Amino acid sequence: MTSNWTELGDRCWVRRYPEWDLNIGVVAGSAGVLVVDTHATEAFATELLADVRRLVPGAEVRWAVNTHAHFDHTFGNSVFAAAGATVISHENAAAQLLERGPELQRRYAENPGVDPDFPAIPAEVIAQIATAPLVPADQTFSVAKVIDLGDRRVELLHLGNGHTDGDIVVLVPDADVVFMGDLIEESAPPSYGDDCYPLDWSDTVDRVVGLLTATTRVVPGHGAVVDAEFVRDQGAEIGSVANNISGLHHNGATLEYALRHDEWPYPAEHLAAAVRRGYEQLGGVRRTLPMA
């Protein structure tokens, strides 16, 4: 795992931070610098901002884009907003940050020790997450937005639901680089949380695949930079999860039975939320087989 910036194309970088194995992107143009995601706490975001300023000395950090609403990608927004950057996200992500962020913070404030979902996070970082100011985007969009960096453009696209209902991809066309946020992960299986859309996710990834070339460098939310083939393969695995959920539901399997199902492309313990969310989306079960 590298702790330095890697240039993926002309003035387009990624840095893989060890906390949550999180990828942060930077795109520089003649009119300023755009940062993709803002990290999880004020302290981490302050460090990130300093890293960006060292990377592109003298350039103004004008835009901070959130790929989705989760804390590790957004709780540093306040630092970038205070530095004069315009924070941008999908409209659903901005709403979700304010709706779900306080709930997460209350959980951490009430249980200030180690989080069982993230056991590697030290208690002092848990405390910082619990007290981070929640600053949603001050510019939002529903489908697409183009940011003019002066001598180049960056395209923001919402291509459907998946990891959340506010996922966006960040395209840098002249560098042939795409930042996908947590629609794709390299260092762990895709993260199915209680706000995921498991039945829609593979279709969304397929739409991204249609934008990629054989040479596109794709930055996942977490892990190493990948290519179009990796994205296509993971999209197929995500599609397999959706097909299993739909098949179980169609055949009359109860939720309890489906949760015990073990024929998945990923470890079953990572998929409980996917099954529950899928069953919620599909509605009541019509019993057609003798499944308990």
UniProtKB/TrEMBL annotation:
Transmembrane segments: none annotated. Gene3D superfamilies: Ribonuclease Z/Hydroxyacylglutathione hydrolase-like. Residues 21-222 form the Metallo-beta-lactamase domain. Pfam families: Lactamase_B. It comes from Kribbella deserti. This is MBL fold metallo-hydrolase.
